[in-house]
Structures are given as structure tokens and as C-alpha cells.
Amino acid sequence: MLHMKRWLIVTLIMALFIPQAMTADAKAAGNSKSGTSTSGKTVYLTFDDGPTAHTMDLLDILDKYDAHATFFMLGPHMERYPAATKRIVKEGNGLGLHGVTHVASKFYHSPYSAYNEMVGANNSLYKVTGQRTSLVRPPYGSKPYLKQNFRDVLLPVGGFHLWDWNVDSLDWKYKKDHQKVYQNIMRQIHSVEGRGQTPVVLMHDQPGTLKVLPLVLKELKAEGYTFKVINKQIKPVNFWNDER
């Protein structure tokens, strides 16, 4: 009789706890399959030429999708749009320098003209926000103009880190063809990720980009990407493979 009671108690315990354990395992398996937040896919969104009159709208879009980006900014623009510059900082976006003039003949006149433009842009950033950065992206990208002698001044002397991109949105070319820009971005991101690299997307702080950005953010979120900002601890991505 005692043996029978013990058997009934064990049976009841198993009946109570085994279904709960199976349910927990099923939930864990489901989460691992759907888990966009644990996919580990990263993308670096970057914007050149700002701030502009459109930066606040751009930041609103980023905020809506809980995304961050890195802004490579021009010195005079930071001083012209101080509120936008401060908001970029306040909301945790990455800070980069794009020079002062954005004129190739002036920026690339000599190694020290390039260096001086980045120092000048950094001074503008500090004047407006009280912060400095070591991230730089020269106008039109580093190739072909930013040769070894330029980099030997800009990087070790200035302590800067050179960034280009591996995904060109071409938003500067197709300003009104928003679908083409969107398709171009997504195709390149998938190609870059397929090669085992982290996408670094070049976009511009301009009106047309505002039409494309929500589409890109929505799709990338659905695919499980995390939007991170560039910092000086990350190995630079540039056309010269210069890791200084």
C-alpha cells in the first residue's frame, strides 16, 4: 500500500512538471530561430557633408527606428547648424570629420592642407559641442588623392583614423530615384556581408536620402541588423587598408 502511494505521488509530480519543461524548451527553440536581436549582424550607417537644414529630420528618422549612425561633418556646417550638431552628440551618434572646404584642389593641395582642414573641423566640433574626434573621411574618399605622403602626416601627426566605406548608396548620383538607391544599398550590404565583412554604408545628409532611409532601416531591422557607431577602437575600413 505504501509503495502504491509513492508511485501515485511520483506520477503526479511528473504530470505537473514535464509539460512545463517541454513548453520552456519549445519557447527557447522558437526564440533562437526568430532571434533577430541575437543574430550578431552589424551595420555602420554613415552620413557625409552635414549638418544641414535637413539633419533634424534625419535624426527623427533614426530615432523612430532606434538606430544610430556616424556623421562625418564639415567645420563651417557644424557652426552654421549648432543645434543639429549638439543633437547628433546628445543622441549618441558617432562623430567624424569631413574637412572644411570640400574642394579637392584646396583640401589636397598638400599633405598639410589636408591635415589643417581636419584640425580646423575638429576645432569647430569642439567649439560647438565641447568634444573632439579622431575619425576622418576626406572629401570624395581617400582614393586616389590621399596618397602615402598625405596619410603619413594626417594619421600619425594628427592622430586621426581614416575611414572610407564598402557600400556606396549612390544617393549623391540618384538624388530622386529613391528605389534605385534603396536597391543599391541592400544589394551591396548583402554582398559585403556574404564576404564576411561588416557593411559601412556611405550616405549623404540631403533631402533625397530622407526618402530612402526609412525603407533601409525598416528592412535592415527585419533582417536582424544592429546599427552601431564607429569609434577609434574599431579597425578602420579604408581604400588603402591603412590600419593606423
Automatic annotation (TrEMBL):
InterPro entries: Glyco_hydro/deAcase_b/a-brl (IPR011330), NODB_dom (IPR002509), Polysacc_deacetylase_ArnD (IPR050248). Pfam families: Polysacc_deac_1 (PF01522). Keywords: Signal. Coiled coil: none annotated. The keyword Signal applies. Residues 1-23 form the signal peptide. Residues 41-228 form the NodB homology domain. This is Peptidoglycan/xylan/chitin deacetylase (PgdA/CDA1 family).
